[in-house]
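haha ok so turns out i had the wrong file open the whole time. this is the CORRECT one, sorry everyone. sequence first:
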Amino acid sequence: MKKIVLLLVLAVTTISSCKPKNEGVVDVTVEDLEVVLNNDKNVQLIDVRTPSEWVDGIIDNAIKINVTADDFEKLALEKLDKSNPVYIYCRSGGRSKIAADVLLKNGFQPYNVLGGYMAWEEKNK
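then structure:
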């Protein structure tokens, strides 16, 4: 059963990656994120929470860029590669959507992780 679910998630991810770039922000679950992180070495993951929230932990290999910082857009443009998808999370999903909209405007293909770090932690207890 797990293999069937994994194959379905991979199929959906593959199909969605065939869509034209920058069609909009794509919402994904933490389960989708886990599959992508395990299978795509080119994926970029950014944590857009504040420094005080990073102390609580981060998802492995996430790039920390505080979305509430005045220079968020500038830092994102410096640190991220437009040719690779960008998965974005915050604490619960609100700020990551704001960050995703900024990245979309700048030519990235953003994926908003629904439920954010709280959902990730809950799934990985």
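The chain has six helices and five strands.
again sry for the mixup
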